[in-house]
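Example record

Each entry pairs one chain with its bound ligand, biotin.
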Amino acid sequence: MNVNWTIERYEEVHSTQDVLRERGEKAQEGLAVVAQVQTKGRGRHGREWISPAGNLYFSFLLKPDVNLKSVGQLGLVIGQALGAALREIVDQPDEISLKWPNDVLYGGQKCAGILIETQLNDRNGIDSVLVGIGVNTKSAPEIGVCIDRDNEDTLQSVLSAVNEVYALWCVGDFDEVLRRWHNLAHPKGAGMSVKLGEELIEGVFESVDSDGHLHLRLNDNTLRTITAGDVYVTGD
Ligand code: BTN
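Structure tokens for the complex follow.
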């Protein structure tokens, strides 16, 4: 059930996601691409991920045998693994937390991000999933904080945690992944603002459901299900 990692290393690429994508259908699960610099690193919602030398940038290929709907869970699977891995290596493990959908925070500020891109086959099923991770190991180029850790230690810690949590998910135990995710994330009742395009919604965190969607309790006590958006935690 373990993923066998094959790591390819580059000095400079546009984006490790693109290097992986260009491999096409023949690429095997577990192929991982690491780069020292990205000239066109990208983040969620089409944003730029500024990628100077020093920080950790990598992408890896997964080929889960699940239906397309379950891919929404994968962000939490990888987020949980990344959070657990960083807890293993930072000076203050308790300061690592998760923010929906898949940001990892250190002392309340973002220190790592995850980008998940799904490639479909001609039957509209999943061919493969490209998982890209950027960790501020040495600097915080735009926002957030850095964890001041060695890139190789960080990479190995993350790949090993992904192996464990991905295996759980592949055997159908998303409940356990979600339980672990909730343990590292904002508590129920935490104040939140969610930006959906131009709209800003305010409420408190209720839970994340089995599709990986966020449930926000609004001020009028109704529940709103959110499938994508930028979350700002405003208090516990
Ligand atoms: C986010 O917006 O939080 C996600 C950031 C993901 C950045 C990583 S760095 C390695 C991989 N290659 C990219 O171009 N993006 C991801």
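Residues 151-170 form the longest helix (20 residues).
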